[in-house]
Amino acid sequence: MRRLLYIAGPLACIVLVCTAAFAAGDAAGGLTAPAMADSIPPDHTDMRDISSYALSQEMVPGWNLGNSLEAIGGETAWGNPKVTQRLIDSVKAAGFKSVRIPVAWSRFTDQASYTIDPLWLNRVEDVVNYVLSAGMYAMINEHWDNGWIIPTNDQQEEVNKRLAAMWRQIAVRFRDYDDYLIFAGTNEVHVDYNAPTSEYYTVQNGYNQTFVNAVRSTGGRNTYRYLAVQGYNTNIDYTNRFFVMPADAQQSRLLVEVHYYDPYNFTINSSSTITQWGKNATDPARTETWANEAWADAQFKKMKIKFIDKGFGVLLGEYGVQARLNLGSTARNQEHAAYRLYWMQYITRSLERHGLVPMYWDNGPTGNNSMGLFNRATGAQVYRDIIKALVDTSSLNTSSVQPPPLPVPLEGALFQNYPNPFNPATTISFTIAVPAQVTLRVLDLLGREVDLLLAGHLPAGAYSRQWNAAAIPGGVYYCQLQAGAFRSTRKMVLLK
Q1: How many Å apart are CA 56 and CA 166, to the nearest integer?
Q2: Is the CB of residue 457 less than 8 Å from the CB of residue 387?
Q3: Is 188 marked active-site?
């Protein structure tokens, strides 16, 4: 049974004396925890002997309880309501198998002794129990927490001391839980967003070792607990290049955590004009030039080769795309929603196909520039299409994921042919904003018509035509679009 031996709450009143109300207001309520030994003999009870990869596959898909327990100032300080069993049950009913619970500890910690207020531990334990009672995996971490985990030589000694002290307390409190509870050492530890120096990633690797040592030192089931460790800034490339797996007396009980928000301008940059993504994007001005489908597949393959193929589970602890509901028109909003859905479908299927655990970043709100999927107060599903994209694992083949239909354009455009240069075939895409008589022609350098690809009346929409130039000599050609009063020309290079 996935339960602890000590249960905070009313039953504890039988043997404990109630304390004063918690100073943090809504942060926690409850009783002082009983004294527990810092270290006890190993206890293998209910701790399975399976690889961390095998365990990770039972966690697919995952969901983040973001911007709640890690909120600086207390659980509701960032606008989300207090977490309830009702919400967690709704997440379970939607099809999720695991919940990542970001936690900030410092506001409820004595800064001199690093002692965590037991009432805050009680509240975190409440939420963990919500998840476990719903039959899901739970993972708690030391989140951003005002950014005190700085990976520099100057900060290393102090951070190691503080990190070890806090994790020993957390580990002791949750020591009697079985392997459905996972600890994650840190979050996105970094100095800046540039490539790390050897100092930065070496110190971060050391923090991972401190975390593992602290948890293992408490004994009991923590001797065998599955633990998640992070690469520098949870960046896939930096993890592949610089991450060193911590030493651990236990075999294959460590998981590696990375995050993914590529391309940034499409996923989480609220001020960006990039609103399209992927192979079916129609407007180069609103499409990022990198991080397409092939890029994502290649990134996840790196993690598979380096870790999964060696038996280690890999958690994609955060990923997702903000909702954009204020782009200037209903058509533009709907267009972005289609590309957002496609990104979620494709990325999730690629993660699962490569063996990574997708854990969607849900920050609570469901309005503009937000990533919430549920009404946090009622548990109601707000973005059913996104939730379905996350939990529908009927096919792990990304080729079955269909890109969004070409949207009705807001303006006419002739896009650069692709590929270019080409031999012998290339695709020409264009949009027209209003119904019009349309001609699409290929011209030579002298302006003579080489081929007529299209002639006729078309409704407003997005279109594409393929030009096969197998019988045409190599050289420079021009594609010319005439749609009513709109005219545009693109240069094409046929290599032979």
Answers
A1: 26
A2: no
A3: yes
Residue 420's domain spans which residues?
413-494
Backbone angles phi, psi at 300, to 5 degrees: -70, -30
**Same structural domain for residues 428 and 357?**
no
pLDDT digits (tens, 9 = 90+) for 297-340: 999 999 999 999 999 999 999 999 999 999 988 888 988 999 99
Active-site position among 70, 75, 142, 188: 188
Is residue 70 annotated as a catalytic residue, yes or no? Answer: no
Average pLDDT over all residues of the chain: 90
> Are residues 212 and 67 part of one domain?
yes
Residue ending a domain, among 339, 370, 400, is 400
Entry pTM: 0.79
Residue 178: give its domain's CATH number: 3.20.20.80
Whether 232 and 243 have beta carbons less than 8 Å apart is answered as yes
Question: Scanning the structure block, which residue is given the tokens 């294959």?
Answer: 252
The catalytic residue among 70, 125, 142, 318 is 318
DSSP state string for 340-354: HHHHHHHHHHHHHHH
Closest CA to 183 of 151, 210, 148: 210
